[in-house]
Specification:
heterotrimer, A mainly alpha, B mainly alpha, C alpha+beta, A: mainly alpha, MetI-like fold, two-stranded antiparallel sheet, 2 strands, B: mainly alpha, 13 helices
């Protein structure tokens, strides 16, 4: 046996040949996942090739739904673009602020813990509630934000009614809601950097900025990558906040992929086949992101 | 070292500390203020709520909005639906997630590899992808008028299975072997060694499920066709649709009812929640 | 008391063979130590006896009864794990009586036995505490108590002292020896620490790469190594091994057998050298001396040499070991080899 290689331990915990027991344990959950995740997944792709409105018989139309999505109507491309803009802005501000706050709140003190807890609170509250509260604060006529602008003598804003601004207003709520969670993750990873490394850097008289870019940032990069992917995935499936605050408006300035699918599947004469095609596009996007997620995950194993 | 310069350094440091403290308090206000605003608005009269500039503290402090909410919509029914759905999901997950996780962690069996691959795949598929076909499924099964469409799809949850399996795997092999040496059967190993050791992570997983079900909006919106089965998160919509022009005190009063249980839960369990969320990110 | 017999046992993990066709008898009532470097298969053997890592092939007997397929709980054995494997969710008492409860021992009897064992290991005052509140040494005692309370015929111990600090380890060592004398049960003890094995064992089984290289009582293993591996694994510092110029053979001797010679003296093996290092041990000094054939360690009561001094070393003929090209001890014809050494023809 080569030295340094760990002896494969006989696993006393694994029991094999115990017949039905493992299947009884795993079976019910697997059945539920099959019915509510995999069958729908396959059915979604299948339905995307049909014209179907839940009442009439479905008719096969081939790739026509996709053709309409991308080449006939422009509203899907708008929704796709809105989703991308929303995702990028949430991503940029979430990561930047999470890192800045984490550096700032790194020492463990009473006030830091308090601020951390305050920032985390919105994360647990439902997005619907947050969206309602912020709609009220954004209110163009009697909202508190305009009152603040007035207090400082600044011109008032239309906020959610301004089609150039609405998407960013919505994104700001998403950042506000989840920043506390991202902060906790970054903070935990900064605190897990071995003290010796930072002490060695201090002995080498490293200036703070260089210390951050050469030591801290590389050490927390796996967690930042994890966040990058998580935020991207959750942003691509955004729905609640948009639906409550703007319902895609004004015009379709804040229409995103899921509100789009929802509208076509449940409101516009139940065009289920067409909505399924849009859903399949979202599925493909998420699959690509998931692939990167696992790539990063496997890299992280080597990294640590 | 010059005495006066060291003193000025100390002064500057103290001033910076004070500034940083003030800024931190301001940030805490920024993150908590919306909740304050929600609650105070709920106690204002409609007239006061639309006054510009707004008042920071309600002048009359009236529970009018709450009684308005109570009269206009059937709060107990929405509340009952929310509770039934959340508790139903948590109860079923306690059974199906834990058994599945235990099976994956402790047994070798045919097909285990691809079954685990399916769990990991399910982990990555959000409800926003599956909702149309699942809706069709429940509509064909004629279950749309019941609470089942909100409960059944979450009775087993890939993420929960993953988390709990992880904690089962962390129980050292030697403990299980020691229990075998002590003549403990498989059931006894589960009830006396594995479950007590994984208690906290099972509770955490259940808590996450409860909060996310309680907070869910998208799924009940899609899966319900009558107020008989709608949860509290959808009740707000009723208040919004009912009148022309938004009555913010009423909306905020209803919102407070929705937020308070979770807020109280957080106040009680903030330490555990913060550490387990941090842990979740690292692992 | 029970005798354990392993018959032609093999063990593989996947494609890795850890033990191949090994047979071994563990004497009833003896304190047997399975000794060897990490990865040599000693723990694997122990787990076979415990029944938690069954052999891939071969049979295990206990007092003549085939227990190869018997589940661990039904063998009359107890085990102390390296990590102690204490159930963290139970109290100290819960840990100790878990096995008794599983075996449906009546309550009164259970309490009596727990109390008695707790007294033996000195845990009476801690019975209702959680293990996390106790120190490393006390946890070690819980693990020991848990084994003792079963009153088994065979005690299996997997490096039980390796997680203790040096002082506590020495103390526990003598406690374990006393315990063995008091109980008279069969002890099987796994360690990689040769000092520990020499101190505790009635019988040492030295293993490497899944094979038994030598077994016997500590003294014979030390004085009479069968091969280079044994000579170098046992003893601090290990035996010196040097090439024999003009042959494929190698020659070995223990550091304490070397003498510093005056210029006119000569022994069977006599060599000039230079002192490289000097380590003061108290009663003795440990020198590293550079000879033409290589460096050797010397343990001596002569304190006067310093680094850089030129010295002459000698080893008597009866203290020399000869090994063949495979590292095995040459036991016949040694007189001839010694004579040729003295003549200087080797």
């Amino acid at each position: 046996m080569r030295p340094g290689r760990k002896l494969p331990r006989p696993s006393g915990r694994k029991s094999s040949g115990t017949g039905l027991v493992p299947y009884l344990l795993v079976g019910p959950a697997m059945l539920l996942l099959l019915i509510f995740v995999f069958y729908p997944l396959v059915n979604l792709v299948y339905l995307s090739f049909f014209d179907y409105n839940l009442i009439r018989e479905k008719t096969f139309v081939g790739l026509k739904n996709y053709e309409v999505l991308f080449f006939v109507k422009t509203d899907f491309l708008d929704a796709l673009r809105n989703t991308a803009v929303y995702t990028l802005s949430v991503l940029f501000f979430s990561l930047l602020l999470a890192v800045l706050f984490a550096l700032w709140l790194e020492p463990d003190s009473r006030i830091n813990r308090f601020l951390q807890k305050s920032m985390f609170t919105p994360y647990l509250i439902s997005m619907v509630s947050c969206a309602y509260i912020w709609s009220w604060m954004y209110d163009a006529d009697s909202g508190i934000l305009n009152a603040m602008l007035a207090l400082f003598g600044l011109p008032l804003s239309r906020w959610l009614n301004d089609s150039d601004l609405a998407l960013f207003c919505v994104a700001a709520v998403a950042v506000w809601k989840s920043l506390g969670y991202y902060l906790i993750i970054v903070l935990a990873s900064i605190r897990s950097i071995p003290a010796e490394i930072l002490e060695a850097a201090a002995l080498d008289n490293t200036p703070p900025v260089r210390k951050f870019f050469r030591i801290t940032l590389p050490m927390i990069s796996p967690q930042l990558f994890f966040l990058l992917i998580t935020i991207t995935i959750s942003s691509f499936k955004v729905f609640d906040v948009v639906r409550v605050m703007t319902d895609g408006g004004p015009g379709n300035a804040t229409d995103v992929l899921v509100t789009y699918i929802y509208r076509y599947a449940f409101q516009m004469n139940a065009r289920v086949g067409y909505a399924s095609a849009a859903g399949t596009v979202l599925l493909v996007i998420l699959m690509i992101l998931t692939y990167f997620y696992f790539q990063v995950l496997s890299k992280r194993v080597h990294y640590q | 070292m010059n005495l006066t310069s060291s003193r000025s350094v100390r002064l500057r440091r103290r001033a910076m500390g004070l500034l940083s403290l003030l800024f931190k308090l301001a940030m805490a206000v920024f993150f908590l203020f919306p909740f304050y605003w929600m609650i105070t608005t709920a106690f204002k009269t409609y007239g006061e709520s639309i006054r510009f500039p707004p008042t920071l503290w309600p002048e009359s402090f009236t529970p009018e909005a709450f009684s308005d909410v109570w009269q206009r919509i059937d709060i107990p029914r929405y509340l009952k639906n929310s509770l039934l759905v959340s508790l139903g999901v948590v109860t079923l997950q306690a059974v199906f997630n834990v058994t599945a996780a235990y099976g994956f962690a402790r047994y070798e069996f045919r097909g285990k590899r691809w079954m685990w691959a399916l769990v990991m795949l399910a982990f990555m598929i959000p409800t926003q992808i599956t909702f149309v076909p699942v809706y069709i499924l429940f509509s064909k099964a004629k279950l749309l008028g019941t609470l089942w469409p909100q409960i059944l799809p979450f009775a087993a949850n890939a993420y929960g299975i993953f988390l709990i399996r992880q904690s089962f795997l962390q129980v050292p092999d030697e403990l299980v072997e020691a229990a075998r040496m002590d003549h403990a059967g498989e059931l006894k190993i589960l009830t006396h060694i594995m479950l007590p050791m994984c208690r906290s992570s099972i509770i955490t997983a259940e808590l996450f499920s409860f909060i996310s079900t309680w907070n869910s909006y998208f799924w009940p919106l899609v899966m319900t066709n009558s107020d008989k089965v709608r949860p509290l998160t959808l009740a707000m919509q009723r208040l919004q649709d009912a009148h022309q022009g938004l009555e913010w005190p009423v909306l905020m009063a209803a919102n407070s009812l929705l937020v308070l249980p979770v807020l109280l839960l957080f106040l009680l369990l903030s330490r555990q929640l913060l550490s387990s969320f941090g842990y979740r990110g690292i692992k | 008391m029970a005798e354990i017999v392993l018959e032609h046992v093999s063990k593989s993990f996947g494609s890795t063979r850890v033990i191949e066709d090994l047979s071994l008898t563990l004497r009833s009532g003896a304190f047997t130590v399975l000794l060897g470097p990490s990865g040599c298969g000693k723990t694997t053997l122990l787990r076979m006896i415990a029944g938690i890592g069954p052999a891939t092939s071969g049979r295990v007997y206990m007092d003549g009864v085939d227990i190869t397929a018997l589940p661990p709980g039904e063998r009359n054995v107890a085990m102390v794990f390296q990590s102690y494997a204490i159930y963290p969710t139970m109290t100290v008492r819960g840990n100790i009586e878990f096995c008794l409860k599983n075996n449906k021992v009546p309550r009164a009897e259970r309490q009596r036995r727990v109390a008695q064992v707790a007294r033996t290991v000195g845990l009476e005052d801690y019975l209702d505490r959680k293990p996390s509140q106790l120190s490393g040494g006390q946890r070690q005692r819980i693990a020991l108590a848990r084994a003792l309370v079963k009153e088994p015929a065979v005690f299996l111990m997997d490096e039980p002292l390796s997680n203790l600090d040096a002082k506590l380890r020495t103390a526990m060592r003598s406690e374990l020896i006393q315990l063995h004398q008091a109980l008279g049960a069969t002890f099987v003890y796994v360690t990689h620490d040769q000092t520990e094995s020499m101190a505790m064992a009635d019988h040492i089984v030295l293993m490497n790469e899944g094979k038994i290289l030598q077994q016997g009582d500590p003294e014979s293993i030390y004085r009479d190594p069968d091969n280079i591996f044994t000579a170098q694994f046992i003893g601090t510092p290990p035996a010196n091994i040097l090439p024999l110029p003009g042959s494929n053979f190698r020659l070995g001797f223990r550091p304490e057998k070397v003498r510093f010679l005056a210029s006119e003296e000569a022994l069977a093996y006599t060599r000039p050298g230079t002192v490289v290092t000097r380590e003061m041990l108290g009663v003795e000094v440990l020198y590293k001396v550079r000879l033409p054939e290589g460096d050797v360690m010397v343990r001596s009561a002569c304190f006067q040499y310093r680094a850089g001094d030129t010295v002459c070393l000698g080893v008597a003929g009866e203290d020399l070991y000869f090994f063949d090209e495979n590292g095995l001890r040459i036991r016949s014809g040694c007189g001839e080899l010694i004579r040729r050494l003295e003549e200087g023809t080797l």
